[in-house]
Design goal:
The chain is mainly beta. The protein has one domain. It is 9% helix and 30% strand. The strands form 2 sheets. It has a 5-stranded antiparallel β-sheet with strand order 6-5-4-3-7, with no helix packed on it. The protein has a two-stranded antiparallel ribbon with strand order 1-2. It is elongated, with a radius of gyration of 15 Å. The chain starts with a helix and ends with a strand.
């Protein structure tokens, strides 16, 4: 069963509003994007660049030979398929 943003907000309203939200491996959520108006992605991996195909954020992946994944395109990307953002 999927959780909607509305349901998530209601659920989180029962918790300490100053607490830090982490995943099951105790990693902090660092990136939030709306994918297509019907899905919202919360990621523990920071954005590393943008997809050259659709312009959405890409994140580091663990898949061998692919440095990034684009959730919007739903595919792993080669280096030439992304534009890396400059580190701050």
């Amino acid at each position: 069963m999927s959780t909607t943003v509305k349901e998530l907000i209601k659920l989180l309203s029962n918790y300490n509003q100053d607490s830090i939200v982490v995943n099951h491996e105790n990693e902090e959520f660092v990136h939030l994007i709306s994918l297509d108006g019907n899905r919202t992605k919360i990621s523990v991996k920071p954005k590393i660049g943008e997809c050259n195909e659709c312009g959405s954020s890409v994140h580091q992946t663990e898949v061998i030979d692919y440095p990034a994944v684009c959730t919007n395109c739903d595919e792993n990307k080669y280096e030439f398929e992304i534009t890396r953002t400059k580190e701050k």
